[in-house]
Amino acid sequence: MRNAVVYTYVGFIILSLLTMFWFIPVYCPPSSGFGMPPATLPYALCIVMLVSSVKVIIRTIRSRQAEMDAPNPLPLNKWAHVLVFAIVCLCTMPLLRLIGFIPGGIIIMLALQLMCGQRNPLKLALISVFTIVIPWACMVYILAAPLP
After folding, report:
1. pTM of the predicted model, to two decimals?
2. Which residues does 80 contact at the CB level (< 8 Å), separation at least 6?
3. Residue 134: which of 88, 102, 97 has the closest Cα?
4. How far is the C-alpha of 31 from the C-alpha of 84, rounded, in Å?
5. Mean pLDDT score across all residues of the chain
6. CB 31 within 8 A of CB 145
7. What is the CA radius of gyration of the chain?
8. So what's the pLDDT on residue 31?
9. pLDDT value for 49
10. Nearest to 54 by CA among 42, 62, 43, 65
11. 8 A C-beta contact, residue 42 and residue 145
12. Dist CA 41 CA 39 (whole Å)
C-alpha cells in the first residue's frame, strides 16, 4: 500500500511538472495587459500539487521507517475504478473545446456524479452547476482574468 502511495504521488509530481512546463505555456493565451494573466492560477495550482505531493512522499517514507508492517495492497477493483474515472475525464476534455467551458464542465460533473451513484436530481444540479460557475465567476469578475 505504501509503495502505491509513493508511486501515485510521484505520478502527481510528474504530471504537475509536465503541466507547468508544457501544457500551460502551450495552451494558455498570452496576457491581455489588464488583470491577472491567464496562466497565473494554473501555475499556482501546479505548485500546490507539487509541494503537497513531495510532502506526502516524505511523510510516507518517514512512517515506513517507523513501521515496517505493510497493510494489504489496494485491490484491483479499486484501481479499475480510478482508471475508469481517468478515462472519463480524458474522453470528455474535447467536449470543453467543442461546446465551451461552462456547459462542458457541467456535463463532466454530471457524468462523474452519476458514476459515483448520486441520483438525487437536486444535488446533481446544484453540485454540477456551482462547481463550474462559481470558480468561473470568481476568475472573471473578481480577478479580472480573461476566460472563455
Report:
1. 0.57
2. none
3. 102
4. 36
5. 86
6. no
7. 19
8. 82
9. 94
10. 62
11. no
12. 6
Question: Mean pLDDT, to the nearest integer, of 51-70?
Answer: 80
Q: Are 43 and 37 in contact (CB under 8 A)?
A: no
CA distance 78 to 72: 13
Helices (DSSP H) in the chain: which residue ranges? Answer: 2-18, 24-27, 40-66, 76-99, 101-116, 121-137
Using alpha carbons only, give the angle 13, 53, 43 rounded to the nearest 5 degrees.
60
**Cell numbers for 103:** 456547459
The torsion defined by the Cα of 139, 143, 144 and 147, in degrees rounded to 10, comes to: -20
The residue among 81, 76, 64, 89 whose CA lies nearest residue 5 is 64
Sign, CA dihedral 99-105-109-110, equals negative
Other CB atoms within a 10 A radius of the CB of residue 19 amount to 18
